[in-house]
């Protein structure tokens, strides 16, 4: 098989060594894309092949592997995701993170299926990819700047208004372990600290501009499939809810069902929800809609406080996760402070999920009297104090005072203050906004995910609610395994997860075929999903991860939910773990029995 | 009756599906070289602006073209480019008041919206109904109403 036999690829991968300044253009290996599709899967394969076990995630040996898939740069619906894979400074495990927007297709138009960043630059630099002209450029003037400011400055310097630019902010430079990489102002590679890895390499940003085009196998078929998907989405109730309210359409439902992260997961429903419900988000803050490349849903919402000029900064979002972690989880019942906190995370470049979780843990420590104002730099860090939240987030980004401790994430904070029982993290990555006591599958999802407690590795809550068995542990091992495989495919096809409303597994395989010319059955697709999961687990196995790392804090396994519609619930993890390992063919300790991965066999 | 393409920048979400279907209809491949409509995003102003020919009644581009490569279609009113006559001088690009003319890097010539011969693909595929193709007489009603409504203190 060669490039001609796998259409849809740009055909080249860019390898940049920041230590030596070398820029090498390599041929894309079509087998890699046949066996791992693209995005997350190809990123995992490259990392597994190239990263030695035990390396320092913030040292020069770590790599940032940016990958897209065959579908990017074609008219395939919602094909706008770029994945970045790296060893995470938050978890020491494999990690990947995906961002939408418009930079992924731009990279394909420039002629590349991926970028591999190696080494460490002696001084701040940025990378400028202008079709086949690639330069490492001086970024000393931009070091220390906020994300939006530096993105605009880079765009102005290269004189390319249509370029797509990703940058890190001060949090990435200061190696906050949950620093993100931000593309085109509001699309983040959010989770796992990719921004810190970028900062450790003295890489401020990457700008991309492409003028080429991607040849596909069957353009007519692709156009037909795309029109079909867009027609389904136009009528789909869930897609229309997203179009109207963004991901915040979920606020009312998850809160009513009693598993919305509240006050560091002490509760599952928020007494102040009426002030920050789905309708108030729309009415009080949203002023226009925005979409990523080739997506007809337009779930992005531009928002600002329409009434209060003090909080006048506009943001894209906040997404539901952001609302949950910076809102109820910190006891905040005002869009003023949720928007303000989102703005702070955006402009300094931090993952809003982990940022909200770590501040909330600080708030609980403060309210329990484990820390006092001497520790919190004089801030009255109680739940609900919006000013304290905003100030603490700033302190984290610049590693000032207590912020310097929180900047290492909830696991480190939990170890320091003997609070691991209620530090909401797995492997060092903070929980998303769903309290697993209200949907047991989410408990297993958080526990077994190779990158830590990330919800989108296997978002089972919708199915669990629909099947009316969200409090049961039974069968959740199989459900999570199935969902994980499916999500591994979605992330590797590098289409947005919201496309799932209209894109069945079969339709994804048909899209892949129309673009690449390679026909895969649904079974072959699921096998690829399983292979990607196994590969990620083998990476972690090499780093010393075992069953004990597939765990949840005891708040979720021993303390029952005190109130709301999930009251009385706790997670019984072990039976689900046993079932999951058995379904996946791992041994009792969660170790893959042998490598059954074709590409590496 | 003559029809006109209008873009509602307040509704545009910047998904660029219009670019995709335009490019596919004109060249079977998704690339800037094939698309007649381009969405410009301004992250600071939170705006998305589709740049496309507005079918001026008396087009400046036709007047300034030194090789007479442009002419107005008698049936649709679109400005058509004779690719044989176009020399790629870009004077039309410089003079278009709407930024609606695009210079193609590979062919070194310009392309202008041809209204897909009266069935614009951007219109049917826009998920926000931000691009409309309607009778010239009625095309501006919505926009006029928006402004008059605001001036009158009542949002229509």
Description of the molecule:
The complex is a heterodimer of chains A (601) and B (156). By secondary structure, chain A is α+β, with helices and mostly antiparallel strands. Chain A folds into three domains: 3-209, Aldehyde ferredoxin oxidoreductase, N-terminal domain (Aldehyde Ferredoxin Oxidoreductase,  A, domain 1), CATH 3.60.9.10; 237-406, Aldehyde Ferredoxin Oxidoreductase Protein, subunit A, domain 2; 434-501 and 521-601, Aldehyde Ferredoxin Oxidoreductase Protein, subunit A, domain 3 (Orthogonal Bundle). Chain A has helices spanning 30-36, 39-50, 103-110, 147-157, 170-173, 194-200, 219-235, 237-245, 251-256, 278-285, 320-326, 335-348, 352-367, 386-397, 402-406, 410-416, 440-448, 461-466, 476-493, 505-516, 522-542, 554-557, 573-584; strands at residues 12-17, 22-27, 64-67, 82-87, 94-99, 114-118, 125-130, 133-138, 164-167, 181-183, 187-189, 203-209, 286-290, 300-303, 315-316, 425-426, 429-430. In chain A, α1 crosses α2 (39-50), α12 runs parallel beside α14 (386-397) and α19 (476-493) packs across α23 (573-584). The longest helix of chain A is centred in the last third of the chain and has 21 residues, at 522-542. Chain B has 156 residues and is an alpha+beta fold. Chain B has one domain (3-151): Alpha-Beta Plaits. Chain B has helices spanning 17-27, 60-64, 91-95, 121-125, 141-151, and strands at 3-7, 38-42, 47-51, 70-72, 79-81, 102-104, 109-111, 131-135. In chain B, a hairpin with a 4-residue loop joins β6 (102-104) and β7. The model of chain B has no long low-confidence stretch (mean pLDDT 91). The A-B interface holds A 73-75, 102, 109, 148, 151-152, 161-162, 184-186, 211-216, 219, 223, 226-227, 230, 233-234, 287-298, 300, 302, 314, 316 and B 10-11, 13-17, 20-21, 23-24, 28-34, 40-41, 43-44, 46, 48, 105, 125, 127-128.
């Amino acid at each position: 098989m060669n490039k001609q036999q796998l259409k849809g690829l740009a055909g080249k991968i860019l390898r940049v060594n920041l230590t030596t300044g070398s820029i090498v253009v390599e041929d894309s290996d079509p087998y890699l894309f046949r066996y791992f599709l693209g995005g997350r899967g190809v990123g995992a394969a490259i990392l597994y092949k190239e990263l030695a076990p035990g390396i320092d995630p913030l040292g020069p040996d770590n790599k940032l592997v940016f990958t897209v898939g065959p579908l990017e740069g074609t008219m395939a619906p919602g094909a706008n995701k770029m994945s970045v894979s790296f060893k995470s400074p938050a978890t020491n495990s494999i990690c990947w993170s995906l961002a939408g927007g418009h930079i992924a297709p731009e990279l394909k138009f420039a002629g590349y299926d991926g970028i591999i960043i190696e080494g460490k630059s002696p001084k701040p630099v940025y990378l400028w990819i202008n079709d086949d002209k690639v330069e490492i450029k001086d970024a000393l003037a931009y070091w220390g700047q906020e994300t939006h400011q530096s993105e605009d400055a880079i765009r102005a310097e290269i004189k390319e208004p249509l370029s797509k630019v990703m940058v890190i902010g001060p949090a990435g430079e200061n190696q906050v372990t949950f620093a993100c990489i931000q593309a085109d102002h509001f699309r983040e590679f959010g989770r796992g600290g990719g921004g810190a890895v970028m900062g450790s390499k003295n890489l401020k940003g990457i700008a991309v501009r492409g003028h080429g085009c991607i040849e596909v196998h069957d353009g007519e078929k692709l156009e037909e499939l795309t029109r079909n998907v867009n027609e389904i989405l136009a009528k789909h109730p869930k897609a229309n809810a997203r179009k109207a309210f963004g991901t915040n359409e979920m606020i009312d439902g998850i809160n009513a069902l009693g598993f919305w992260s509240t006050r560091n997961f002490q509760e599952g429903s928020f007494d102040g929800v009426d002030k920050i419900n789905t309708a108030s988000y729309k009415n009080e803050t949203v002023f226009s809609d925005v979409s990523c490349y080739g997506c007809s849903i337009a779930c992005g919402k531009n928002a600002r406080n329409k009434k209060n000029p003090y909080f006048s900064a506009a943001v894209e979002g906040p997404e539901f996760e952001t609302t949950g972690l910076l809102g109820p989880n910190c006891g905040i019942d005002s869009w003023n402070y949720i928007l303000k906190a989102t703005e702070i995370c955006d402009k300094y470049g931090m993952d809003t999920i982990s940022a909200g979780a770590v501040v909330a843990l600080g708030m609980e420590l403060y309210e329990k009297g484990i820390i006092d104002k001497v520790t919190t730099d004089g801030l009255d860090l109680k739940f609900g104090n919006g000013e304290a939240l905003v100030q603490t987030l700033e302190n984290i980004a610049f590693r000032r005072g207590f912020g310097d401790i929180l900047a290492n994430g909830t696991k480190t904070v939990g170890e320091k203050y003997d609070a691991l029982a209620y530090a909401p993290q797995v492997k060092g990555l903070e929980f998303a906004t769903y309290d697993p006591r209200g949907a047991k599958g989410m408990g297993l999802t958080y526990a077994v995910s190779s990158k830590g407690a990330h919800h989108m590795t296997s978002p089972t809550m919708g199915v669990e609610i629909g099947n009316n068995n969200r409090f049961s542990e039974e069968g959740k091992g199989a459900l999570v395994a199935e969902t994980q495989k499916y999500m591994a495919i979605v992330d590797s096809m590098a289409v947005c997860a919201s496309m799932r409303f209209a894109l069945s597994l079969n339709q994804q395989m048909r899209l892949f075929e129309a673009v690449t010319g390679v026909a895969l059955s649904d079974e072959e697709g699921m096998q690829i999903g399983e292979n990607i999961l196994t590969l990620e687990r083998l990476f972690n196995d090499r780093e010393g991860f075992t069953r004990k790392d597939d765990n949840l804090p005891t708040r979720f396994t021993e303390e029952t939910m005190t109130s709301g519609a999930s009251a009385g619930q706790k997670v019984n993890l072990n039976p689900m773990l046993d079932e999951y390992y058995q379904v996946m063919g791992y041994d009792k300790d969660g170790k893959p029995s042998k490598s059954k991965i074709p590409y590496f066999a | 009756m003559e029809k006109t393409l209008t873009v509602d920048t307040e509704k545009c979400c910047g998904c660029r599906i219009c670019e995709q279907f335009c490019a596919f209809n004109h060249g079977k491949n998704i690339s800037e070289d094939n698309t007649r409509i381009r969405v410009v995003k301004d992250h600071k102003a939170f705006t998305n602006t589709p740049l496309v020919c507005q079918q001026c009644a008396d087009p400046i581009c036709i007047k300034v073209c030194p090789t007479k490569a442009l002419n107005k279609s008698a049936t649709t009113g679109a400005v058509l480019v004779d690719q044989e006559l176009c020399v790629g001088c870009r004077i039309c690009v410089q003079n278009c008041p709407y930024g609606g003319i695009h210079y193609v890097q590979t062919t070194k010539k310009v392309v202008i919206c041809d209204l897909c011969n009266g069935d614009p693909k951007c219109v049917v595929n826009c998920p926000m109904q931000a691009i409309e193709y309607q009778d010239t007489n009625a095309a501006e009603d919505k926009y006029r109403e928006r402004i008059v409504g605001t001036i009158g203190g009542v949002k229509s």
